[in-house]
Write a sequence for this structure.
């Protein structure tokens, strides 16, 4: 099997489309509200810097042309969803940190994919004059995403209405969701745009238009994406086993070391300086990525476009991915456990925030406060308030004494908890 095998192309297309759609759905822009732009503007330039610095060793150490080197830098800026998905589900990690990792993963897709597609066009000299470039960029960045957005918004709206009237079985809703992703890809491609950006825009439409997808689809979609990713990993492994000979191992390993241990941690550490978070959180976020299947899927786009030198680039990226899978895969569980232990030993700044946007908000919110005497008086009234115990993990572990009848909610989960409740009385949150 070679990199141009149609089976690999079909499986890779399905996988990347599902991953991009789910990444967009998981951005949680509606939850961030008006403040969603703050973390996006902070993290977006970080991805651009990683692309630029990642291109340097590809050009200087491995001898790729600058166009192909920047393609490789963009490929290596992508964050793999497989390992990251397990991290963002870990309840030991403060919610704001998990959310910022979700946003960064989504921003990777939004920044990296257009860069790769434009550079492929440059490498192939597909577009010549200014008018041609204007048309190309309009189809790529406007028309394709617009069509995908319409398909995603209309498709999710129709399914919600059909389910309200006819009670569609969950397994059919799950299959419908996969069909909607593929429809967005196909429609965007049909109008001359890029299908992957169309799939991402379809997921974004579900979020921005506040459409409700059945949890069964999100669960089924994630399982389907993971199964497709595993199959693609196996196929890529077969392809890479015969491709490593085309790249010098020493420089490729140096590239892997620079990307994994220097470039990403340094850039993420820099762009996260404005955020109110502990050193542990800075280290944790900066460490994870780039690794795994996303990078392989993206470099396959270059190979399938028949760009000169693309197969050698695939081999170089394969070395980085192999090293990254070993290093990041081996450290994911221990690092999560270490960070979780730190949260139980002392109160971390990021524990007080439930959203990524809150980490960048320097203004202290105006929260009404009451004294313990006032709370005691309220508790003895005919309509006592609901008391929330929102002490940090470490404070709660040190002193397990609780106000009788209080409800224990982690401080970073308070907003999420409140959104699921139907509260019509006074709520008092307390911490120490």
């Amino acid at each position: 099997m070679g990199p141009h095998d149609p089976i690999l192309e079909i499986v890779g297309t399905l996988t990347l489309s599902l991953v991009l759609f789910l990444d967009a759905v998981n951005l949680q822009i509606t939850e961030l509200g008006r403040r969603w732009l703050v973390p996006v503007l902070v993290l977006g330039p970080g991805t651009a810097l990683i692309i630029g610095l990642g291109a340097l060793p590809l050009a200087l150490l491995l001898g790729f042309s600058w166009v192909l080197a920047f393609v490789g830098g963009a490929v290596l800026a992508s964050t793999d969803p497989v390992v990251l998905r397990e991290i963002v589900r870990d309840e030991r990690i403060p919610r704001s940190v998990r959310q910022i990792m979700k946003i960064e993963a989504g921003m990777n897709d939004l920044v990296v994919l257009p860069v790769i597609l434009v550079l492929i066009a440059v490498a192939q000299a597909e577009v010549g004059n200014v008018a041609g470039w204007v048309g190309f960029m309009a189809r790529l960045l406007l028309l394709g995403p617009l069509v995908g957005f319409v398909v995603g918004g209309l498709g999710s709206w129709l399914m919600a209405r059909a389910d309200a009237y006819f009670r569609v079985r969950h397994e059919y809703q799950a299959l419908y969701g996969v069909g909607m992703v593929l429809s967005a890809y196909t429609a965007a491609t049909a109008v001359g745009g890029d299908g992957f950006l169309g799939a991402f825009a379809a997921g974004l439409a579900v979020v921005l238009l506040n459409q409700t997808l059945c949890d069964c689809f999100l669960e089924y979609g994630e399982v389907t994406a993971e199964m497709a990713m595993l199959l693609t990993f196996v196929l890529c492994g077969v392809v890479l086993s015969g491709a490593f000979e085309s790249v010098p191992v020493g420089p490729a390993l140096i590239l892997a070391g620079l990307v994994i241990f220097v470039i990403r941690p340094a850039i993420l550490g820099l762009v996260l300086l404005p955020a109110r978070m502990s050193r542990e959180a800075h280290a944790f976020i900066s460490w994870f990525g780039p690794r795994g299947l996303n990078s392989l899927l993206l470099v396959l786009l270059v190979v399938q476009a028949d760009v000169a030198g693309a197969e050698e680039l695939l081999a170089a990226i394969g070395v980085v991915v192999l090293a990254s899978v070993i290093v990041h895969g081996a450290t994911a569980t221990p690092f999560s456990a270490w960070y979780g232990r730190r949260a139980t030993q002392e109160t971390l700044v990021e524990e007080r925030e439930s959203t990524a946007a809150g980490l960048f908000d320097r203004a202290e919110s105006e929260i009404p406060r009451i004294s313990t005497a006032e709370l005691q008086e309220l508790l003895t009234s005919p309509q006592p308030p609901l008391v929330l115990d929102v002490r940090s993990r470490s404070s709660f572990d040190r002193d397990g004494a609780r106000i009788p009848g209080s409800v224990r909610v982690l401080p970073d989960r308070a907003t999420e908890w409140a959104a699921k409740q139907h509260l019509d009385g006074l709520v008092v949150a307390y911490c120490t």
Observations:
- The longest strand covers residues 386-389.
